[in-house]
Design a protein that fits this description.
two-stranded antiparallel sheet; five-stranded antiparallel β-sheet; alpha+beta; disordered C terminus; 100 residues; elongated
Amino acid sequence: MGTSIYTPEEVEGRWPYSPVLSHYRSRNIEVYRLGEALSHDGYDEMGPEANLYDMYVDHSRGTDWWHREYWFQGSDTEGYTFVKSVRSTRRSSMRESSAP
């Protein structure tokens, strides 16, 4: 499906990114980039049964993985949930790979 890369300024004040940014801001952690990937879970004759979103947050202490799902029932209101830290170094591959 592809990955979208955002700066914190691009998504500031937008749901579902704002609560994630607030998580880091409240801990005085600088966020460099957010990478969001969309995939699907199951297909039927009408198409995908759910949108699965994985977001990687590249920040001053490493990189974290967040996840959310939308099962096409009602409004898309589920926010991101922290999954785990996937990199705990000061330099992150997302920041390095997006450099010119």
